[in-house]
Design a protein that fits this description.
The complex is a heterodimer of chains A (398) and B (138).
Chain A: E1 14-17, H1 25-30, E2 36-40, H2 43-47, H3 50-60, E3 64-69, H4 78-90, E4 95-100, H5 102-117, E5 126-127, H6 133-136, E6 146-150, E7 162-167, E8 172-177, E9 185-188, H7 198-217, H8 223-245, H9 250-267, H10 274-286, H11 290-305, H12 310-322, H13 331-348, H14 365-373, H15 376-379, H16 387-397
Chain B: H1 7-22, H2 27-32, E1 36-43, E2 47-53, E3 61-63, E4 72-77, H3 78-85, H4 91-97, E5 100-103, H5 106-110, H6 119-129, H7 133-137
Classes of the chains: A alpha/beta (398), B alpha+beta (138).
């Protein structure tokens, strides 16, 4: 097995996982230095009653809930981030607690940067650009304590050092990536996904599977990342369909939360691939939900990538074996078998199988291909794609 | 010890490469598709190169202070920039290690990375023509 010239790995988020943990949110968050907490969520989650339980859990731990910001839309943007940061300041918060899916958690991460370091959120766009000691070359300056209770099992944002935020003025989504962005605490309790609708559970679960498969096949794969992602694949294999089929299956929902949390580990440090390069512009231009886009784009990308080299074929083979797929033969056979397995899984989950079903028009493909070429994930894909390759891949997914 | 002795040394070598690329009939239009203004802030020695990569605009390259407002700022040691243009730096690794820091819409610049490969031998040839084999062997 290759000894890599370089990789780095960190898992800075303290994860607690189990049942009935919501009630001890305050007890756990206090260990991260929180005292006066602003809870950040959306109205849909608030209406489920979960936020009320979280507030009770915070108070039970002797902390104060200074306010609830429940104004995060499904596709949050810079204006929401700024309002959230302002509310945190106005209400005298010293910490933020996200209760929601990827949009809520990323909004909270962005708000925390502005709350802690000032400025406007677009000013912080970039990679490893948060303030540091020693004139920017030393230890990163701390952000306010941040906790996260994910209510979907997919993005893994509760444990990643990345925030993706929409800038409506510029018509783009931008990325902030730096170690301090990773939440200090993630609470994985199946109670938080009890009301998750099946189609969203399915789509977000496929997002987690995409993270795991791309995590172990990217040029930025690492042994540490593999340890996380390969176990995530096992959990997804055993739990995703159960969690989607039966919302009362607490064990399956709990394991999917753990799977999503594990699967993000390599992705959070850049081990990703062109499924993401294709899915991001599908979301930005046509509003295709990220998990749905990944579920559609992943199979053709697997077939494209698996023939990159023997080593890459082996990496796909390892993932395929864990999913119970016959992974014998060369890259082409492994790729086809794994891609077919993903297509069948997607169909069993009731997800759309083609981009044309979710509003992507054929005439949009040249622009989507150009957008995909400009995605950071393209640089770390195991096989270097051309713009023509992307056109072909989008046609296959259409 | 740093490869370049002062800012002028950076401008005479790396800077000249940027000027030549801005005038290249084949590559310049591809780079300008990025549609941005990039400022490269180098350390050791302190030096700054600002480049306009905008479709339909002249390929301006400024050394030192510039009136162009950058959208993307890439900061690194001048040595890292030099080794990049010799094809010796993996950008994703350099970003991950913090050897290159990027502020702004980084994707616009990452998109250009595959286009830079044909430039590596050109930079080497330029240094040879300038009698700077010391920089090639460094």
């Amino acid at each position: 097995m290759t000894f890599k010239d370089f990789y780095q790995f960190a898992a800075p988020t303290r994860v607690i996982s189990g049942r009935e943990l919501i009630a001890s949110t305050g007890f756990e968050f206090a260990k991260e230095g929180a005292e006066r907490v602003l809870v950040v969520t959306d109205r849909v989650i608030r209406d489920t009653g979960l936020v009320e339980k979280v507030e009770g859990g915070v108070a039970d731990g002797g902390l104060e809930v200074v306010g609830v910001f429940d104004d995060v839309p499904q596709d949050s943007d810079t204006a929401v981030v700024m309002r959230c940061a302002e509310q945190a300041k106005d209400q005298g918060a010293d910490s933020l607690l996200a209760v929601g899916g990827g949009s809520v958690i990323d909004t909270t991460k962005g708000a925390n940067v502005v709350f802690s370091h000032g400025g406007t959120i677009p000013e912080w766009e970039g990679v490893f650009g948060l303030p540091r000691e020693r004139d920017g070359m030393g230890r990163p300056l701390r952000l306010a304590p941040l906790g996260a209770i994910p209510t979907t099992a997919g993005t893994g944002s509760e444990a990643s050092p990345v925030a993706v935020i929409k800038d409506s003025e510029r018509g783009i989504k931008f990325v902030i990536l730096d170690f301090p962005l990773a939440p200090d605490l993630a609470i994985l309790d199946p109670e938080s996904t009890a009301t998750l609708p099946a189609p969203i559970a399915a789509a977000t679960g496929m997002d987690a599977l995409t993270h795991a498969i791309e995590g172990v096949t990217s040029t930025e794969w690492s042994p540490h990342g593999d340890a996380y992602a390969l176990h995530a694949i096992r959990l997804i294999r055993d739990s995703l369909e159960r969690a989607v089929a039966d919302a009362s299956d607490e064990e399956a929902r709990g394991n999917m939360l753990v799977a999503a949390n594990l699967a993000i580990a390599p992705t959070g440090f850049g081990a990703t691939g062109i499924t993401h390069s294709m899915s991001h512009p599908c979301g930005a231009r046509y509003g295709v939900p990220h998990g749905v886009a990944n579920a559609i784009n992943l199979p053709p990308v697997i077939e494209f990538n698996a023939v990159a080299s023997e080593e890459v074929a082996d990496q796909f083979g390892g993932a395929a074996e864990l999913l119970g797929v016959d992974a014998r033969g060369g890259g082409e056979q492994v790729g086809r078998a794994l891609a077919d397995h993903v297509r069948e899984l997607r169909a069993r989950l009731g997800l759309p199988g083609r981009l044309s079903e979710v509003g992507v028009p054929e005439q949009g493909i040249p622009q989507l291909a150009e957008d995909a070429m400009g995605e950071g994930s393209t640089l770390v894909n195991p096989r270097e794609p051309t713009a023509d390759d992307f056109v072909e891949l989008f046609h296959k997914a259409l | 010890m740093a490869y370049f002795k002062d800012a002028q040394d950076v401008y005479d070598t790396l800077g000249k490469l940027f000027v030549d690329l801005a005038e290249d009939e084949e590559l310049a239009p591809k780079f300008r598709k990025a549609n941005t203004i990039v400022r490269y802030e180098y350390r050791q020695p302190e030096s700054t190169i600002t480049v306009r990569l905008q479709e339909g605009q002249p390929g301006d390259v400024d050394f030192g202070e510039s009136g162009m407002e950058p959208e993307v700022v890439m900061s690194m040691e001048a040595d890292t920039a030099h080794r990049f243009w010799l094809g010796q730096v993996n950008v994703t690794v350099a970003l991950a290690r913090g050897q290159i820091k990027a502020k702004g819409p980084v994707a616009k610049i990452l998109k250009l990375v595959p286009l830079t490969k044909p430039v590596f031998p050109r930079y080497k040839a330029q240094l040879e023509a300038q009698g700077r084999s010391d920089l090639i062997e460094a």
